[in-house]
Design brief:
two-stranded antiparallel sheet; 5 helices; 2 strands; mainly alpha; Immunoglobulin-like
Length: 126
């Protein structure tokens, strides 16, 4: 009986910690990029990024054409050619051919704001 009470007392605190940690990651990503994580998820869907990439947390983003973006925040490089930094990621998202003219990633005419938001979302993927 005591174990049952402890479990029911412990569970809400554990869930609160998990939600708090999630918000911390989102806040950090937003501060890092100047973007909005929620809008980033919507922009990823709007531009059809999931038609080429697997992107955790994005509905329908399970493709194998481009790289899987799971764990993106922990990567050292973007597309194997740029150091993974917010400015480099935003540049890449806006115009990948300006960085690597041989890339298969198309220029999707992503706006500067949407690129910041997408970058914010990608930096939550740990």
């Amino acid at each position: 009986m005591l174990a049952s009470r402890l479990r029911h007392t412990w569970l809400p605190f554990a869930l609160l910690s998990l939600v708090s940690a999630c918000h911390d990651v989102q806040d950090q990503a937003s501060k890092l990029t100047g973007g909005d994580v929620e809008r980033g998820n919507a922009s990823i869907r709007k531009y059809g990024c999931g038609s080429c990439h697997t992107i955790p947390g994005v509905i329908g983003a399970h493709s194998k054409v481009g790289p899987d973006l799971s764990g993106f925040a922990g990567r050292a490089y973007i597309a194997g050619v740029l150091t993974n930094s917010p400015d480099n990621l935003i540049t890449w998202i806006e115009n990948p051919q300006a960085v690597d003219d041989k890339t298969a990633m198309p220029n999707m005419a992503v706006s500067a704001r949407d690129a910041r938001d997408i970058a914010a979302y990608l930096y939550t993927l740990r």
